[in-house]
Amino acid sequence: MSGTLEKRVLVVDDESDVTELLEYKLKQAGFLVRAVNDPLRVLGLARDLRPEVIVLDVMMPELNGLQLLRMIRADALLKDTPVLFLTAKGETDDRLKGLQGGADDYVAKPFDAREVVLRIQALAKRAKSAAAAPETRLAAGSVVIDLDRHEVTAEGKPVELTATEFKLLRTLVERKGRVQTRERLLEDVWNYAPDIETRTVDTHMRRLREKLGRAGDVVETVRGVGYRAQG
């Protein structure tokens, strides 16, 4: 198979006109594209292709996008692959369900194909950066994390954090711009099962923001979903 890993995209939609349009536009933009209209074939194709981004329609027969997303996030080979949702409606509920399920971005139908291409390019670039050699310093706004020294500064001043607060902040900043649900944070920071009380996250987040002072607004609350680091 030709092409480089960072150029591979899997497009999934049961409507052939949608996949044909996106396949055409993405190929024009230099992507290696595999399009599929049968959701039952997605996991096998994704494991073979190892795409940098998966474009996933929400409303499909037999397996819908939310079900497929859960399967992707549970697969060891695919769990970190950025997913862009295509939603039939731009309603808040559709967006929140996608983000809560682990989607990285969404576009509502009818969409501008150029916008979809730009969003895919952004996700692919972000994924490529994350796969590069790990940084020893992370930053979001005026908050800087020195991983080697295990130190945090906000607006140039040192901030004393507990081990859990440090891991929480690091997780958010490493995934800057991506919404992290409370359940995901419980699993990744506390190693808890997702059914553990989510107030644990809110309590630590409140303390973390207090310690960061004015720089605490670098962590945004996404109402009804979770948290996201900005900047």
What attributes characterize this protein structure?
5-stranded parallel beta sheet; 8 helices; 231 residues; alpha/beta; elongated; Rossmann fold; 2 domains; disordered N terminus
Provide a concise account of the structure shown.
The chain has 231 residues and is α/β, with parallel strands linked by helices. The protein has eight helices and twelve strands. It has two domains: 127 residues, 3-Layer(aba) Sandwich (Rossmann fold); 93 residues, Orthogonal Bundle (Arc Repressor Mutant, subunit A).
Give your account of this protein's structure.
With 231 residues, the protein is an alpha/beta fold. It folds into two domains: 5-131, Rossmann fold (3-Layer(aba) Sandwich), CATH 3.40.50.2300; 137-229, Arc Repressor Mutant, subunit A. The protein has eight helices and twelve strands. The protein has a five-stranded parallel beta sheet with strand order 2-1-3-4-5, sandwiched between helices. A hairpin with a 4-residue loop joins strand 7 (143-146) and strand 8. Helix 1 crosses helix 5 (113-131) and helix 6 crosses helix 8. The radius of gyration is 19 Å and the shape is elongated.
